[in-house]
Amino acid sequence: xxxxxxxxxxxxxxxxxxxxxxxxxxxxxxxxxxxxxxxxxxxxxxxxxxxxxxxxxxxxxxxxxxxxxxxxxxxxxxxxxxxxxxxxxxxxxxxxxxxxxxxxxxxxxxxxxxxxxxxxxxxxxxxxxxxxxxxxxxxxxxxxxxxxxxxxxxxxxxxxxxxxxxxxxxxxxxxxxxxxxxxxxxxxxxxxxxxxxxxxxxxxxxxxxxxxxxxxxxxxxxxxxxxxxxxxxxxxxxxxxxxxxxxxxxxxxxxxxxxxxxxxxxxxxxxxxxxxxxxxxxxxxx
Length: 286
Hints:
Elements: E1 8-15, H1 23-33, E2 37-44, H2 45-48, H3 55-64, E3 69-72, E4 86-87, H4 89-94, E5 99-103, E6 106-110, H5 113-124, E7 132-136, H6 140-151, E8 156-160, H7 164-178, E9 183-185, H8 189-195, E10 198-201, E11 225-228, H9 237-245, E12 248-250, H10 253-268, H11 274-283
Helix pairs in contact: 1-10, 1-11, 5-6, 5-10, 10-11
């Protein structure tokens, strides 16, 4: 971590339907605690009536207005890549970016979602069975989570997505990096769920603006562990149903906090206090 301690930061989050995001408050609170003048703004495509094709203009505007960096969320984590000058090794391997540092006239893309999910998984489900896991979703967040799961010891990850081409591309990416048996494209959800020890949802289904379940509730069973990356609401319908059955569960709060911890460090060059950021996230309620 750099020794340079910035005195002020202007950051933002680009995404669709992000008015409920706790990211701005987490960053600004940690900045205050460290004596950094920290302003974090939401750039909500939905609220602005914009499509992801507005990304080039938004990045240019952020540079012109002196932004230190941007976080990137659904649906822009992959479409932003061609607009960047450099990618970190992590972002390049995953094929998705959730943090862009704007410095010295360059746009450098990073991925802190992978680290964020891995840290939350280690802390929240430390002894979870890892032989066979089903993951719903193969988008930008899904790619980061898949990488994290395999790094954390998952031996066979079965991927399902409504976009089969996207799911197959992620399977190919994982196999190229981790080996030929680490992942496969899901074709029979009931059979895969019957064989699985764990389930991870990385789709937006379950968010406040997209309520519901990413799979039929009758495919859940008590001996499964179930992880979610959505944090608004903290208890999605999937987690509610899983907990009612007695499943061990992991909500989206840890990933939200730990990806923000790393993004804060990239923007400021200063180490964040993860425990303080966790406590502040929890204080914002459900």
